[in-house]
Amino acid sequence: MLYLVTRLKSKMISYGAVIVALLISMATPAFAQMNIEITGVGQSLYPIAVMRFKDEGKLPISITDIIRQDLARSGYFKNTENGNAVESDEGTPNYKSWAARGADALAVGSVVQTGNGQFEIHYKLFDIRKSLSLGGLNLNSSTDNLRAVAHKIADDIVFKLLGERGVFSTRLSYVIKDGKRYRLVISDADGQNIRNAMNSGEPIISPSWSPDGKKVAYVSFEDRKPVIYVHELATGRRISLSNQKGNNSAPAWSPDGKKLAISLSKDGNTQIYGINADGTGLHRLTRGNTIDTEPQYSADGRYIYFTSDRGGNPQIYRMSAEGEQAEGVKRVTFKQGFVTSPRISPDGKYLAYIANIGGAYRLYILNLATGDAQALTDGTSDESPSFAANGRYVLYSTKVGGKRVLAAVSVDGNSKQVLSIPGSDVRQPSWGPFMD
């Protein structure tokens, strides 16, 4: 966790020299893919029949399987049809027959090849309980965009049946450690379709998505010290956002994407600063005599939450986004004696954090209106929480079998899954925003 990293800053700076290979674009895939294990499901699942898309054998991958997997991972759906049966996407289904088979909804589709590597994907959704067509989508796709099409269809199903945006079309960033090498990668929300953003012989930590999903800020140790960079994903271009004396760490974007809050030790104890997204306008926001770090903007951009040990042990505090001199500082967490890693849900209602419970680092969620806090896991090595764009899930890093993996849990704690890459440590996750 960044608080502990700050405590160990002298050790951190001793890392050796590195050779960094920045890829020009996101086009080079990593060979290892995520394994996904669903370890829990929601208590009440929506039964849906997702039928095999007609003629999808023309495709190099299965649209149907990806949609089914997305819905299963959500923790809110149960696939009632898992075979290869095809249902026509023309005309009206037999609602009574499907109801008798236990389906409350039916998704059907077909594939039409329009050229070399070009396809039309047709999909329709029906509400079986209401005997109602819910419309569908007609999507054009090249071979390399089929996964995105499947995720978009799964998102449409979630929206039409549950009334909220799905997050299957969002992306993740995280760090893969293979031996002594580190890779910052971008993937689909299911951990698949991995693309390298950066390779390094030294640690990469704290990736943070810009609100428009086009850039990722992160901390790299390639210069024998922690330096903050902003990486433009489409081009591979990056800028050094902050390379001040001492530690440069914990970048966090403002909701409008115009500035970031960061942690710097250039004046002694680590404190929080504001900086424009182009690296200009550096200014100090906290003025404590202890450590202030891990800043996070509130959803409306009015406040910054951060970790501080100004009360003795680390806890989460809140101040105005203009700095603590504007309105003072308010303590937010009281339930545990050692709390770090604040993350605010997109709707501003919840705070996720890591608490030390008898030496075990565990993911918690706090209702900011009521003050009620609950553990989302029973883990001992949880770190780096990150909310999904719809606020329904929290992504984090934990240990399974001595290796670091990614895990996701719904905010009610019912649906859980583990994402791992065999033979690799996976850490420092950040869940990207909606891509409009």
Outline of the structure:
This protein has 436 residues and is mostly beta strands. α3 (63-74) packs across α5. 11% of the residues lie in helices and 44% in strands.
Question: What layout of secondary structure does this protein have?
Answer:
Blueprint: H1 2-7, H2 9-12, E1 21-22, E2 35-40, E3 46-50, H3 63-74, E4 77-79, H4 95-100, E5 105-115, E6 118-127, E7 132-142, H5 146-162, E8 171-178, E9 181-188, E10 195-200, E11 204-209, E12 215-220, E13 227-232, E14 238-242, E15 248-253, E16 259-264, E17 271-276, E18 283-284, E19 292-297, E20 303-308, E21 315-320, H6 324-327, E22 329-331, E23 339-344, E24 350-357, E25 360-367, E26 373-375, E27 383-387, E28 393-400, E29 403-410, E30 416-420, E31 425-431
Parallel strand pairs: 3-4, 3-5
Antiparallel strand pairs: 1-10, 2-30, 5-6, 6-7, 8-9, 8-31, 9-10, 11-12, 12-13, 13-14, 15-16, 16-17, 17-18, 19-20, 20-21, 21-22, 23-24, 24-25, 25-26, 27-28, 28-29, 29-30
